[in-house]
Amino acid sequence: MNHSEILLNIYGSVFESDEQILILNYPNHFNTGDHAIFLGELAIFETLGITIRGVFTNHSFERIEDQIKGIIAQFGRKISLVLHGGGSFGGIWPSEERARLHYLDIARRLNLKFVQLPQTVNFTEQVNLLPWKQMESGSDTTLMVRDNQSFHWLQDEGIPSILSPDSVHFLDFHFDNDIKESVTILKRRDFESTDEFLKLGLSEWDWRDTIRFREISKRNLLRLKGEFENYLPFPSNKISVKTARQLSLEIVLSGLNRISRSQVLITDRLHGVLLGTLIEKDLIIVDDSHHKISNYLSTWMTDRKLWIFSNWQDAMPTIVNISAQKNDQ
Fold first, then answer.
1. Which of 59, 156, 209, 264 gives the lowest tally of CB atoms within 10 Å of its CB?
2. Alpha helices in 17-116 (DSSP H)
3. Cα separation of 10 and 47, whole Å?
4. Low-confidence ranges of the chain (pLDDT < 70)
5. What is the Cβ-side half-sphere exposure of residue 135, based on CA atoms within 13 angstroms?
6. Strand 51-56 vs strand 238-239: parallel, antiparallel, or unpaired?
C-alpha cells in the first residue's frame, strides 16, 4: 500500500463521507512546506467528498467562536473543527500552541468534533499537556501524528493518537526538470536548523527566497486584515477555499520550480525532502535540530536509500566534494 492509499484509509476512518468541516490555522506565511501540506489536505478531503465550510488563519483566533457559532446556525450542528497539520505540536512554536488549545476549548464547550491533522510532536518545558490528557475514551477529539517518535511520546503521556503519513504524499506534481545547476542548497534560517547561522558559501537559500511579489502582496493583504482585526466590528480571519488554494498553489509551485532546476538537492527541511522526492531529485539530507526529518524517514521512507547527516558540520565535507564533482562534469 502506498502513502496515498494509507492517507485515504486513515482520513476515511476519522471523517464521515458527508462531514462538514472548518479548517483552522491556515498558514498565512511563506513556509512552502506548510502550503504543500494544506494542498494535500484539500485534495484528500475533496477525494473523500467532505465539505469544507471555511478556512481560517490564526489572526485574532480569540474571536473565532462567534464565527463558528454563525456557521453552525447556517449549516447545522454537524460541523467539525479541523486543524491544519505540520510540525508545531508541543510548544516549540508557542503562538501555534496557544491557538490550538483555544480551538480545542471551543470544540469542547460547543460539543464539536475536533481533529488535529498529522503533526510532529516536540515537547518543551512550557507545554501544557493537561487538556490533551483530559481526552476521554470515545470522545470526539482526534490527534494525528506523523512519526513513530511522536506517537510514542504521546502514548507515554497517556494521550491517544493516530499515526499517519504527511498529507503532502497525496500530491501529484510533474515537472520538466530543466537543469540549470548541479547542486542547490535549501537551508533553514531559524532555530530548527542544527546551525542556524552557518554560512556555507555555496549560494544556499530558504523557501522565503522563492516567493514572488504577487504572493507577497496576497499574503500581506491577508495579514493586514489580521493586523486590524481588533479595530473591526467583525472578525475577518476567514478566507475562501478558492483564495487559500490559489495562494498555497502559487507558493508551492515557486518552491518546486526552484528545486527542479538542480540535479542534486541538499536540504534540512522535511518538505524539501518530500517535494524533492516527489519530483525525483537526488537528495543529500541534513537533519534538523529536533530530528523531525530523521524520525519521519525512519517511520515512512525506510524503503528508500537516503543520504542523511546529523548536522551541517558533519555534512560539509560531502557537500564540498559533491559540489566539486558536479562542477567538473
1. 156
2. 32-48, 64-75, 94-109
3. 13
4. 1, 77, 124-128, 135-139, 177, 197, 200-201, 212-237, 326-329
5. 23
6. antiparallel
How many angstroms separate the Cα of 48 from the Cα of each of 8, 14, 19, 213? Answer: 8, 11, 10, 35
> What is residue 226's predicted lDDT score, i.e. its pLDDT?
47
CA distance 234 to 67: 9
What span, in angstroms and rounded, lies between the C-alpha atoms of 243 and 230? 23
pTM over 0.85: yes
Cell, residue 24: 483552522
Q: Which residues contact 13 (CB under 8 A, 6 or more apart)?
A: none
Q: What is the pLDDT of residue 294?
A: 96
- Which residues, 6 or more positions from 175, have their beta carbon under 8 angstroms from its beta carbon? 256, 257, 260, 279
Nearest to 186 by CA among 293, 96, 88: 293
Q: Please tell me the predicted confidence (pLDDT) of residue 220.
A: 54
Cα gap 323→194, rounded to integer Å: 21
**CA nearest neighbour of 261 among 278, 247, 285, 281:** 281
> Residue type for 121, please?
V
Instruction: Yes or no: say if 124 and 92 are a contact pair by the CB < 8 Å rule.
Output: yes
Q: What is the DSSP letter of 135?
A: P
Task: Classify residue 88 as exposed, middle or buried by CB count within 10 Å of its CB (0-12, 13-18, 19+).
Answer: buried
Joined together, the cell numbers standing for residue 99 give 491557538
